[in-house]
Structure formats: C-alpha cells, structure tokens
Amino acid sequence: PVWILLISFLVMTRPLLVAQDIDNRPPALSLDICSVIAHPAEYDGKEVIVTSLYRVIIHGAILTGKDCSSVNVSAKESDNYKANKHAATVLRHLLKKDHFAPVQIVVRGTFHVAHQGQCFGGDICAPYQVEIAELISAQAVPPKSVTAPEAPAPDTLVHGSDHVDPPK
Predict the structure, then answer these.
(1) Residue 1 has what pLDDT?
(2) Helix (H) or strand (E) holding 165
(3) pLDDT score recorded for residue 3
(4) DSSP string, 10-46
(5) pLDDT at residue 20, as a whole number
(6) Which stretches in the chain have pLDDT values below 50?
(7) What share of the chain is helix, strand, coil (3-state, %, to 5)?
(8) pLDDT of residue 108
C-alpha cells in the first residue's frame, strides 16, 4: 500500500531533514535569535529553531545575536537534551580554546518570556529563555571580515586617478 511507502520514505529521510549540512551551515528553517526576541509574544511557549551566538558565563550560558547583542537570552538544556555529535565536538573544541568566546550555534528548543516580576538565569536576570532540546550545529564565529573601504560621501569627487577630493 501507498501509506507504507510514504511512512518508509519519511522515516528514511527524517535524519536528512534535521541533520546539519556537511559544511555546518545553519538549517534553512532556522530563525535568528534577534527575530524571535523582536516578537517575543509570538514565540512564547513555542518550539523554535534558532541561530545565535552562544556564550558561557559564570553560572550558565546565554544566547545573543549580532544585531541584538544588548539582550541576553538564558540558555538552559532540557531534560531530554541531545546533541548532534559533530556539533557537540565542535562546541567542546572551541570552548576548550577559549571558554568565554562566543560560538555560533543552531538549536531547537522552547522559547519562554519572563512575566512580571520574573526573570531567567539567576545572576543575569534575562527576560527570555530558550530551553534547548537539541544542538543542531556549532561553528566558530567568523572573524570580522576586512571591511571594504567606505563609499565616498555623495558630495565627494573621485577622480579617474583614484584621487579623492574631500566633501565640501
């Protein structure tokens, strides 16, 4: 019957849907942590797959994003936590090199919003928490790329000889 073939197909391809790419890129369906905290009520209590920067702190760990680095999200492993073996190895290796350096990770977990008079993470008192059920991928944070020279101001005159007259 057709349903047996469909179930067999889904069982066989399920690992391919959640496994990280060979080059450790985040899954296409992951959200940036900044997108989630920009609309916290929309995600409160829901399972999400997020890309974020993971940092170990004195009494735990936090998630943050490049575009929302002023907001800390408490990171807590769930009771049924599991990790992709390669991602766990990469995370351990990077943290061994520098225990407090950020690591770019993709996790699946439940997002929680602190309600009035509540916060997460003890000492950091974060307004949000991701209860991590699965570590999907981990990679070093790319070094700050060499920035291209800034474009000249609109009133700057660039000559063919590459000489630039400053703005007036």
Answers:
(1) 54
(2) strand 164-165
(3) 44
(4) HHHHHHHHHSPPTT-PPPTTPEEHHHHHHSHHHHTT-
(5) 37
(6) 2-23, 146-163, 167-168
(7) 25, 35, 40
(8) 97
Strand partners, 134: 82, 108
Q: Which residues does 126 contact at the CB level (< 8 Å), separation at least 6?
A: 62, 72, 73, 74, 114, 119, 120
Three-class DSSP category at 92: helix
First CA to last CA distance, the chain: 78
Structure token digits, residue 73: 């999200």
Distance CA 49, CA 86 (A): 18
CB hemisphere CA count around 90 (13 angstroms): 21
d(CA 52, CA 31): 9
Neighbours of 43 (CB within 10 A): 21
Tokens 């474009």 found at: 151
Sequential DSSP letters for 103-139: EEEEEEEEEEE--TT--BSGGG-BSEEEEEEEEEEEE
